[in-house]
Amino acid sequence: MRVHVADHPLITQKLSVLRDKSTPSPVFRQLTEELVTLLAYEATRGVRVEPVEIQTPVTTTTGLALSQPRPLVVPILRAGLGMLEGMVRLMPTAEVGFLGMVRNEETLEPTTYAERLPMDLSDRQCFVLDPMLATGGSLGAAIEFLFQRNAVDVTAICLLAAPEGLEALEKATEGRDVTIVLGALDERLNENGYIVPGLGDAGDRLYGTV
Ligand code: URA
């Protein structure tokens, strides 16, 4: 598993506003989109492309086009939805699938409660959107779900992560081609499973406490 922590003053500045508990939902949503676009720039560094010949007004030259099959973007419901617009702004031709993960309160295992994805992901590059990599349980299960459908490689984009979650994910994805792109790596998880210093509950801050 490769981990890339974005190191850019604009990313840290936008994250600082997200962390501030007085930032209201509309600003939180807007900044989340902007952050994802910046992180997506880094996360798509390995996107598959192929040469194409193009005619400029002056001459013929060679450029690049995204390869087929199109990359698949997968927001994890609910908070990952707040990252979708920022991602497809950068890669408008990507296909979008949806995955809803919830923790079974008896087994504590993450289970899938909603899924709208192609059955066969052979040859597909997948980009998973999940703002908070806390314990790594649901993200690990989502990534495994995509590999079970034969995804080639999976890149997850997260705003924040805890070291505990990264460690768990490293074990859960052993032997898989996985890249994690982060806005910041925070200090730790607290006893309630929140990232510290973190930004609170990302879903609630995006959408309210429904
Ligand atoms: N999920 C969140 O939304 N926030 C955290 O701090 C941890 C998990």
TrEMBL record:
Q: Which domain of life is it from?
A: Bacteria
- Under Enzyme Commission nomenclature, its number is 2.4.2.9
Q: Where does 5-phospho-alpha-D-ribose 1-diphosphate bind?
A: 78, 103, 130-138, 201
Query: Per its UniProt record, what InterPro entries does this chain match?
Result: PRTase-like (IPR029057), PRTase_dom (IPR000836), Upp_B (IPR034332), UPRT (IPR005765), UPRTase/APRTase (IPR050054)
Q: What class of enzyme is it?
A: transferase
Description of how activity is regulated: Allosterically activated by GTP.
Catalyzed reaction equations:
UMP + diphosphate = 5-phospho-alpha-D-ribose 1-diphosphate + uracil
Cofactor binding mode, per the note?
A: Binds 1 Mg(2+) ion per subunit. The magnesium is bound as Mg-PRPP.
The protein's required cofactors: Mg(2+)
Question: Which CDD domains is this protein grouped with?
Answer: PRTases_typeI (cd06223)
Q: Record's Gene3D superfamilies?
A: 3.40.50.2020
Q: In which pathway does it act?
A: Pyrimidine metabolism; UMP biosynthesis via salvage pathway; UMP from uracil: step 1/1
Similarity comment:
Belongs to the UPRTase family.
What is the protein name for this chain? Uracil phosphoribosyltransferase
What species was this sequence derived from?
Leifsonia williamsii
Species classification: Bacteria, Bacillati, Actinomycetota, Actinomycetes, Micrococcales
